[in-house]
């Protein structure tokens, strides 16, 4: 038996259930079983908990995209991994669990520059930043970049990657209290409420994670010729972790539409990504994990580590904006 955190019904953080569930009896030949030490928490887990995540499986299901732990069993054809290896893994759901079984491509031996907590904190954020900044935007030294969610998990990895490549980076935050999370990576902080009036209109790349019409329009207005607006999330549909039909409709109906000719006329690129889709393609997993192994300068910013029994509190802290850095669930020390 394993212990898992389940979404049996959509709702508040209190609606998450902790249950004992049976583990699969035998592994497929290319699968690995991991005794989980830490599970990473992502904002998307909250979005799926309230029932707004389109790609989530039918209820009941176990959320969670990433874990670190120790290999406890390997399928008959698995090479290069042995029982006892310390690993990290991407999980396409199911990561909030004391034990997971995943295809071998989704597993990476824990890079030596990361400890177990950092290893659970990095898969989703690194994959997102790598695909977005390197594979899609192909950013390079000197490029002027704005990250709108600069103080969160994605922001911390993005800012480190941009600092390493020598980009000129700016980051938004709702509050000056969080500016230090931006300046520590040699990026320049700007208050979110003041960005519309920011005088520079020559950004090569802007990351939008709010999905909000006003923010999108203002960010488009700040792009350089040939600039790129990248859409990553819809932060604006939730407030304090609660969905409201009015807010959701406002965001969805208010989303700007673009005529194809406008790209021709205005010299710009708008794109986006659902990183989950990359999990289905071994080619992308292999490429991303190789890049992660080589990125030994990266240090995920670990916030609070909660016993899995305190998952409700962890979700409350994240949705109420009380969290700094990456939040983790601990399956061993409780
Ligand atoms: N498309 C994908 O595949 C994918 C993958 C990973 C993440 N995401 C999305 O990326 C976003 C960031 O994820 P995360 O893990 O870094 O979250 P996180 O660690 O919870 O951080 C939340 C961040 O959102 C910022 N924020 C608050 N209000 C905002 C607003 N109106 N507009 C933009 N940002 C705002 C916060 O900044 P301040 O508190 O400083 O204002 C903070 O930096 C989320 O929307 C998430 O769903 C998407």
Helices and strands in order, then pairings?
Blueprint (H helix, E strand, L loop, with lengths): L1 E6 L8 E6 L9 E10 L2 H7 L16 E9 L11 E5 L8 E5 L3 E3 L6 H6 L1 H14 L7 E4 L5 H13 L2 E6 L6 H4 L4 E4 L11 E6 L4 H9 L1 E9 L6 E2 L2 E2 L1 H10 L5 H7 L1 E5 L9 H13 L7 E6 L3 H9 L6 E5 L4
Parallel strand pairs: 8-9, 8-11, 9-10, 11-12, 12-15, 16-17
Antiparallel strand pairs: 1-2, 3-4, 3-6, 3-17, 4-5, 5-7, 13-14
Helix pairs in contact: 3-4, 3-9
List the keywords:
334 residues, alpha/beta, Quinone Oxidoreductase, Chain A, domain 1, Rossmann fold, 2 domains, seven-stranded mixed β-sheet, six-stranded parallel β-sheet, 10 helices, 28% strand, binds NADP nicotinamide-adenine-dinucleotide phosphate
Describe this structure in words.
This protein is α/β, with parallel strands linked by helices. The protein has two domains: 152 residues, Medium-chain alcohol dehydrogenases, catalytic domain (Quinone Oxidoreductase, Chain A, domain 1, Alpha-Beta Complex), CATH 3.90.180.10; 152 residues, Rossmann fold. Helices cover 28% and strands 28% of the residues. It contains ten helices and 17 strands. Strands 3, 4, 5, 6, 7, 16 and 17 form a seven-stranded mixed sheet that branches. Helix 10 links the parallel strand 16 and strand 17. The longest helix is centred in the middle third of the chain and has 14 residues. The model has no long low-confidence stretch (mean pLDDT 93). The site of NADP nicotinamide-adenine-dinucleotide phosphate (NAP) has 28 residues, from helix 1, helix 3 and helix 4. The site of NADP nicotinamide-adenine-dinucleotide phosphate has 28 residues, from helix 1, helix 3 and helix 4.
């Amino acid at each position: 038996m394993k212990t898992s955190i389940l979404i049996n019904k959509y709702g508040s953080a209190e609606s998450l259930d902790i249950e004992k569930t049976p583990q699969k009896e035998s592994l497929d030949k290319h699968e690995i079983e991991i005794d989980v030490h830490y599970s990473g928490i992502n904002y998307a887990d909250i979005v799926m908990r309230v029932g707004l995540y389109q790609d989530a499986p039918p209820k009941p299901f176990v959320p969670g995209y990433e874990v670190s732990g120790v290999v406890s069993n390997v399928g008959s054809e698995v090479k290069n991994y042995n029982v006892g290896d310390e690993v990290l893994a991407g999980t396409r759901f199911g990561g909030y669990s004391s034990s997971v079984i995943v295809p071998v491509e989704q597993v990476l031996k824990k890079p030596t520059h990361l400890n177990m907590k950092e290893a659970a904190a990095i898969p989703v954020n690194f994959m997102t930043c790598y695909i977005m900044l390197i594979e899609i935007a192909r950013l390079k030294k000197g490029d002027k970049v704005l990250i709108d969610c600069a103080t969160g998990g994605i922001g911390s990895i993005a800012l480190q990657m941009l600092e390493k490549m020598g980009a000129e980076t700016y980051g938004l935050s709702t509050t000056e209290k969080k500016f230090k999370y931006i300046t520590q990576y040699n990026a320049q902080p700007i208050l979110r409420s003041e960005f519309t009036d920011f005088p520079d209109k020559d950004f090569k790349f802007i990351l939008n994670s709010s999905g909000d019409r006003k923010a999108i329009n203002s960010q488009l207005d700040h792009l350089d010729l040939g600039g790129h607006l990248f859409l990553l999330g819809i932060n604006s549909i939730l407030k304090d972790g609660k969905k409201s039909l009015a807010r959701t409709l406002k965001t969805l109906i208010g989303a700007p539409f673009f005529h194809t000719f406008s790209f021709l006329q205005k010299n710009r690129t708008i794109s986006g990504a659902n990183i989950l889709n990359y999990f289905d393609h071994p080619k992308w997993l292999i490429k991303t994990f190789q890049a992660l192994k080589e990125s030994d300068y990266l240090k995920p910013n670990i916030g609070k580590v909660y016993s899995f029994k305190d998952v409700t509190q962890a979700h409350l802290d994240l949705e109420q904006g009380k969290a700094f850095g990456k939040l983790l669930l601990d399956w061993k020390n409780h």
